[in-house]
Amino acid sequence: MAHCIECFTSNKANPFSDTFALEGLDLILNNIVAACDDPEAIDAKLAMQIGSFYGGVAITASGTTAVHALSYPLGGKYHIAHGVSNAILLVPVMKFNEPEIRPLLAKAYDRCMKGNAATEEAKSKAVIDKLDEIVKHLDIPKSLKEFGVPESDLESLVASGMEVTRLLVNNRRKVTPDDARKIYLEIM
Q: 65 near 6, Cβ under 8 Å?
């Protein structure tokens, strides 16, 4: 899910990556809950497998953004699983990016969600809310405290996250050390 939405909103997004990112996001958003909740939901699990593959294809063409950049220090130092650290950071980073990616999130809404949101702002909010709903439903921890990450490590996290420039340059909204600090504080 993170791969798809990040690749779609990446500075390096292009028609090829968008095709795979949007199709993958559609498959994941509309099947992840059933795939995780119902052991017999074979069609939903197949859709997740294909959606995951499409996210991988999108990465090769556009790359991920600040979600991944800021998650790497969490895996490296605290051994938090890559998918979990990305899920924890997904909504805070998307909210931070929202002013710059609003039209893209609205396009993702039109492609992947069924609803009655009418404005670009409402559509953008609906996508972020859906991501948040999924993360909560899957019982992904919302706080780094559950992994023993002390607030005293904040500056170390910021410094490490800011070193992942190969991904931060893909983020449509520039991330400063102060921005990274605020994002990390949201999940501490």
A: yes
Among 94, 66, 73, 54, residue whose Cα is nearest residue 157 = 73
pLDDT digits (tens, 9 = 90+) for 36-88: 999 999 999 999 999 999 999 999 999 999 999 999 999 988 999 999 999 99
Angle at 77 between CA 36 and CA 92, to 5 degrees: 55
Closest CA relative to residue 67, chosen from 178, 171, 179: 171
**What count of other Cβ atoms lies within 10 Å of the Cβ of residue 150?**
9
**Residue 65, Ramachandran bin (φ over 0: left; ψ between -120 and 50: alpha; else beta):** beta
Give per-residue pLDDT as tens, 143-175. Answer: 999 999 999 999 999 999 999 999 999 999 999
Residue 154 CA to residue 60 CA, distance in Å, equals 31
Question: Taking the model in full, what pTM does it have?
Answer: 0.95
DSSP-assigned states of every residue in 10-78: STT--HHHHHHHHHHHHHHHTTHHHHHH-TT-HHHHHHHHHHHHHHHHHHHHH---HHHHHHHHHHHHH
In sequence order, the 6+-apart residues with CB closer than 8 A to the CB of 14 are 61, 62
- What's the chain's Rg over C-alpha atoms? 16
